[in-house]
Sequence to fold (157 residues):
Amino acid sequence: MNQDLEKLAQKIQVFGKENLSDILHYTAVGLKNLFQCHIIRIYLEDLHQGILICQYMTDQNDPDERQITQFISPRDSITSQAFYENKVILSWTLPEGFTKYRNPFEKISGIQSCVVFPIVHELRPIGTLTLDWQEEGEFVSNSNVEAINAFLTKISM
Fold:
Protein backbone atom coordinates (compact mmCIF):
# COMPACT_ATOMS: atom_id res chain seq x y z
CA MET A 1 0.00 0.00 0.00
CA ASN A 2 2.76 2.45 0.91
CA GLN A 3 4.42 1.90 -2.49
CA ASP A 4 1.14 2.67 -4.26
CA LEU A 5 0.72 5.87 -2.25
CA GLU A 6 4.34 6.82 -2.97
CA LYS A 7 3.78 6.38 -6.74
CA LEU A 8 0.61 8.46 -6.52
CA ALA A 9 2.43 11.19 -4.59
CA GLN A 10 5.19 11.30 -7.21
CA LYS A 11 2.59 11.68 -9.97
CA ILE A 12 0.83 14.51 -8.11
CA GLN A 13 3.99 16.38 -7.09
CA VAL A 14 4.72 17.05 -10.77
CA PHE A 15 1.82 19.54 -10.79
CA GLY A 16 2.23 23.09 -9.56
CA LYS A 17 -0.30 24.98 -7.45
CA GLU A 18 -1.81 26.43 -10.62
CA ASN A 19 -2.94 22.88 -11.48
CA LEU A 20 -5.19 22.47 -8.42
CA SER A 21 -7.94 20.74 -10.40
CA ASP A 22 -5.44 18.10 -11.62
CA ILE A 23 -4.06 17.62 -8.10
CA LEU A 24 -7.57 17.12 -6.69
CA HIS A 25 -8.57 14.76 -9.50
CA TYR A 26 -5.51 12.50 -9.31
CA THR A 27 -5.62 12.45 -5.50
CA ALA A 28 -9.30 11.50 -5.33
CA VAL A 29 -9.30 8.97 -8.16
CA GLY A 30 -6.05 7.39 -6.97
CA LEU A 31 -7.27 6.97 -3.39
CA LYS A 32 -10.66 5.73 -4.55
CA ASN A 33 -9.01 2.97 -6.56
CA LEU A 34 -6.66 2.00 -3.73
CA PHE A 35 -9.30 1.86 -1.00
CA GLN A 36 -12.36 0.80 -3.02
CA CYS A 37 -14.49 3.72 -1.76
CA HIS A 38 -17.89 4.67 -3.04
CA ILE A 39 -17.01 8.38 -3.16
CA ILE A 40 -14.06 10.61 -2.28
CA ARG A 41 -14.78 14.23 -1.39
CA ILE A 42 -12.21 17.00 -1.02
CA TYR A 43 -13.17 20.20 0.77
CA LEU A 44 -10.91 23.25 0.93
CA GLU A 45 -11.26 26.27 3.16
CA ASP A 46 -12.51 29.42 1.48
CA LEU A 47 -10.63 32.15 3.33
CA HIS A 48 -13.00 34.91 2.18
CA GLN A 49 -16.13 33.18 3.47
CA GLY A 50 -14.53 31.23 6.32
CA ILE A 51 -16.18 27.95 5.32
CA LEU A 52 -15.24 24.66 3.72
CA ILE A 53 -16.34 24.26 0.13
CA CYS A 54 -16.41 20.98 -1.75
CA GLN A 55 -13.87 21.41 -4.52
CA TYR A 56 -13.91 17.87 -5.89
CA MET A 57 -16.04 14.77 -5.61
CA THR A 58 -15.62 11.51 -7.52
CA ASP A 59 -18.60 10.16 -9.48
CA GLN A 60 -20.44 13.48 -9.53
CA ASN A 61 -22.89 13.02 -12.38
CA ASP A 62 -25.86 15.06 -11.18
CA PRO A 63 -25.37 18.85 -11.41
CA ASP A 64 -27.66 19.29 -8.39
CA GLU A 65 -25.16 17.39 -6.23
CA ARG A 66 -22.90 20.46 -6.31
CA GLN A 67 -25.49 22.45 -4.39
CA ILE A 68 -25.82 19.72 -1.76
CA THR A 69 -22.11 19.31 -1.15
CA GLN A 70 -20.98 22.91 -1.42
CA PHE A 71 -21.22 23.93 2.22
CA ILE A 72 -20.63 21.84 5.31
CA SER A 73 -23.46 22.03 7.76
CA PRO A 74 -23.90 21.61 10.65
CA ARG A 75 -20.70 22.46 12.45
CA ASP A 76 -20.83 19.20 14.42
CA SER A 77 -20.70 17.09 11.24
CA ILE A 78 -17.87 14.58 11.04
CA THR A 79 -16.28 16.61 8.22
CA SER A 80 -16.30 19.85 10.20
CA GLN A 81 -14.98 18.11 13.31
CA ALA A 82 -11.98 16.71 11.43
CA PHE A 83 -11.21 20.19 10.09
CA TYR A 84 -11.70 22.23 13.27
CA GLU A 85 -10.07 19.66 15.58
CA ASN A 86 -7.29 18.91 13.04
CA LYS A 87 -7.58 15.15 13.49
CA VAL A 88 -8.58 12.07 11.53
CA ILE A 89 -12.07 10.84 12.37
CA LEU A 90 -13.24 7.31 11.60
CA SER A 91 -17.02 7.04 11.61
CA TRP A 92 -17.00 3.57 13.14
CA THR A 93 -15.24 4.85 16.27
CA LEU A 94 -17.78 7.56 17.13
CA PRO A 95 -19.29 6.78 20.56
CA GLU A 96 -22.80 7.91 19.57
CA GLY A 97 -22.63 6.41 16.09
CA PHE A 98 -22.13 7.98 12.70
CA THR A 99 -25.79 8.86 12.10
CA LYS A 100 -25.64 11.74 14.61
CA TYR A 101 -22.67 13.36 12.81
CA ARG A 102 -23.62 13.04 9.14
CA ASN A 103 -24.05 16.13 7.02
CA PRO A 104 -26.96 16.46 4.54
CA PHE A 105 -24.99 15.04 1.60
CA GLU A 106 -24.02 11.93 3.57
CA LYS A 107 -27.64 11.34 4.56
CA ILE A 108 -28.96 11.75 1.01
CA SER A 109 -26.20 9.61 -0.52
CA GLY A 110 -26.64 6.76 1.91
CA ILE A 111 -23.08 7.01 3.23
CA GLN A 112 -22.81 4.54 6.11
CA SER A 113 -19.08 4.73 6.90
CA CYS A 114 -16.36 7.25 6.26
CA VAL A 115 -12.91 8.40 7.25
CA VAL A 116 -12.21 12.12 7.25
CA PHE A 117 -8.64 13.39 7.06
CA PRO A 118 -7.69 17.01 7.67
CA ILE A 119 -5.51 18.39 4.90
CA VAL A 120 -2.77 20.30 6.70
CA HIS A 121 -0.28 22.88 5.49
CA GLU A 122 2.29 24.26 7.91
CA LEU A 123 0.50 22.63 10.88
CA ARG A 124 -2.81 24.33 10.03
CA PRO A 125 -5.82 22.57 8.47
CA ILE A 126 -6.70 23.94 5.03
CA GLY A 127 -9.36 21.37 4.12
CA THR A 128 -10.50 17.78 4.45
CA LEU A 129 -10.47 14.62 2.41
CA THR A 130 -13.22 12.07 2.99
CA LEU A 131 -13.32 8.41 1.96
CA ASP A 132 -16.98 7.26 1.89
CA TRP A 133 -18.60 3.82 1.76
CA GLN A 134 -22.27 2.89 1.48
CA GLU A 135 -21.90 -0.03 3.88
CA GLU A 136 -21.22 -0.08 7.59
CA GLY A 137 -17.83 -1.40 8.62
CA GLU A 138 -14.18 -0.65 9.24
CA PHE A 139 -12.57 -0.09 5.85
CA VAL A 140 -9.06 1.12 6.66
CA SER A 141 -6.54 -0.11 9.18
CA ASN A 142 -4.61 2.16 11.53
CA SER A 143 -1.50 1.64 9.40
CA ASN A 144 -3.44 2.73 6.30
CA VAL A 145 -4.69 5.82 8.16
CA GLU A 146 -1.08 6.70 8.97
CA ALA A 147 -0.01 6.07 5.36
CA ILE A 148 -2.80 8.28 3.97
CA ASN A 149 -1.92 11.02 6.47
CA ALA A 150 1.73 10.88 5.38
CA PHE A 151 0.63 10.97 1.72
CA LEU A 152 -1.56 14.05 2.33
CA THR A 153 1.27 15.79 4.19
CA LYS A 154 3.64 15.08 1.32
CA ILE A 155 1.35 16.42 -1.43
CA SER A 156 0.16 19.50 0.49
CA MET A 157 3.63 20.97 0.98
Q: What stands out?
A: The chain has six helices and five strands.
